[in-house]
Prior knowledge:
The chain is an all-alpha fold. The protein contains 15 helices and no strands.
Amino acid sequence: MSEISQKETLPLRRVLQGSVLILISNLIYISNNYLVAWTGLKAPEIALVRGGLQLAIFGALVCRRRETDKESGVTHKQAFLYLLLSVYGFTASTASFACLAAIPFMPIGDLIVICFTAPVFSVFLDRIVLKRSFTLLSICLCFLIVIGDVLVIQPPFIFPKEDSEHNATHDTQLSEESMSVEKHGEHYFLGVALCLYTAAAISVANVVGAKCNKMDISTSNLMLVSGCSSLILSLVSTVFLPNRVLSDPQSLTTEAAVLLPVSATITMLAYWTITLAISITSNPTLIAILRSTEILISLVTESVWWNELPAPCLS
């Protein structure tokens, strides 16, 4: 028991380093969400450019490192390692892709809240893969996260909508209802499904990434794998999703064309900081919980975006 507790105890310095990195990634991701919503950029377009950047930058770093290192560091369990890297690449790339795809379907605030159900998945995966024990606090936090998400999503079978004729008694109430309809459009629950997948995939990627770090796989290798996966996913998705970068680059607006490489670069940096934070702390559940501080930032940004102060009342 003493060995387990020592392994699970993190130095304060590492916690602070991980927290700073996660704060940087949160600010980048929130900024990028609004950038995507403003420019109308699509998930395949961003994934294509970001994947290409990661492949070029981290591919060069990995090749340079292999030239300087005579031994690879991992010469056993190659099949298991390749399986882990494949799972990591797939979940990391599809999580980002699903999150970007959900942006047109729902408010940014709702998207962020639902995506951060990741700690619920991470707690159980952490126990199965990394053998980290459950705690009463982690279980209670999971229940609170689930309850909070239900209050945000408001499924119709739990929150039936009242007759609008009884509620719309004057103009202010009518305007509130029209804003609610705008926020919860017909594809809202498709966005919810994409966000829940994002949360699950992020948890898998974080836990598998921590496992890979224990097997001496560097963050550059992980970034290279996720970049390759993003590039492949973007190319495959062109079968059923539009990608103006490949099909018709001239159809991109000036804003979209200029900010596409910006979006790809900053999201690559944001994911790199998360990968570094997991490598430093070796605790994916802690990182998932720290990432949820993005919700607090989004409350402020959503108030500005919708010109409406946060309120406890349910729509």
